[in-house]
Specification:
The protein is an alpha/beta fold. It has one domain: Rossmann fold, CATH 3.40.50. Helices cover 62% and strands 10% of the residues. Helix 1 packs across helix 2.
């Protein structure tokens, strides 16, 4: 079981430089966990790619539909955000030597509850996760 953030998940669905590496990481997982936050960031990331001209509306819709089908089929297991994650995010930000961004702290709060490794290409999130004792992939 691994918790996946958007920096690693988006290249699985939209070709990028690290898509092959992202697919290898997920192929090795027995269970892939995403949070409500990951889902929101995924949809915002797709919209951003359209606005930058890197993705057409038709590609966005096809990608979104595939992603949603993977959630419905259980290929991706979605966990909800709870109010307790807000408080835990603050505690983790205080403990970490890394200057955490709010959304990264929320990812780490979900991760703390799950007790699983995190798969991310986000350098700051990876550094903070290491700092707090979490296993980081790749």
């Amino acid at each position: 079981m691994i918790y996946v953030d958007t920096s690693l998940l988006l290249p699985v669905y939209v070709p990028e430089d690290r898509s092959e590496e992202a697919n290898r990481v997920l192929a090795s997982a027995s269970s892939i966990i995403v949070s409500d936050l990951t889902v929101a960031e995924f949809h915002v990331g797709l919209a951003r790619k359209v606005k930058l001209g890197n993705l057409s509306i038709a590609q966005l819709e096809a990608t979104r539909d595939l992603f949603e089908s993977h959630l419905q089929e259980g290929l991706l297991r979605r966990v909800p955000l709870h109010s307790s994650h807000s408080e835990e995010a603050g505690r983790l930000a205080s403990r970490s030597t890394v200057m955490l961004r709010t959304l990264d702290a929320l990812h780490l709060a979900v991760l703390a509850e799950l007790g699983s490794p995190v798969a991310t290409f986000d350098g700051r999130l990876a550094e903070a996760a290491h700092d707090l004792g979490f296993k980081v992939l790749p």
